Amino acid sequence: MLAKIWAQATEKLVEQTFKVVEKSSYGSARVSLFTIVDFSEPPRLDEWKIELNRILTNIGFRKDGNEYIASDVRIKDIVSDYLYLPLESEDSEEERDDVFDFDNGILYVKRMKIYAIPEKIDKKCLSKAVSKLTDIVEGFMKYFNFSKTFFGVRIVFENSSEAGKFKEKIHDQLNRLGISQIYQSDNMVDVIVLSIAKAKEAFEIIENELFGGLLSKIKRLPLRHLKSA
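-> structure tokens emitted (229 positions)
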């Protein structure tokens, strides 16, 4: 199940903007963050939207075009997977990908996906960004029940050799926390953190290894320009 959720989440990364560091301990690196929440009792879409806006405002986010920005993180996109429940058959849950009949049914949010990048790059940028993302999740936890939640980071290196070295360096440290999974595909390393309480600690391990070297000029590039890396 986790592999399926992971695959669906990382598909969306193709459309996201990565944060690019010209120099790190491993040369150039591109970083993108995401958070996924599964609701065990899906809220109505209208309730979820109201609560989302309230939480983002309360923890310091502001709208910037179609994005949300705070001091340490920029949310590139917030995606919801819906559950459609026809009014005439309240006991049967029906998943729909086509046009919903709003007059005869209700939309519920069964999964929330948040895609983000660090707003600024420094040696604590990942842990500061994930701290803001955990604030969002904890805000929802006050009102809704979750069945699953995790935080992820995808790091794109210049080549598979650098990716392999990085994975090897962080593997044992993250394993000791007992709450993460690490995947490597060619020059990409993906880390999933399965604990809200230890998310910041896990991301500190990642950033300490990644940003241990000299940081220089920062810029943003969409992933479509990086796929050949």
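Residues 59 and 135 are 7 Å apart (CA to CA).
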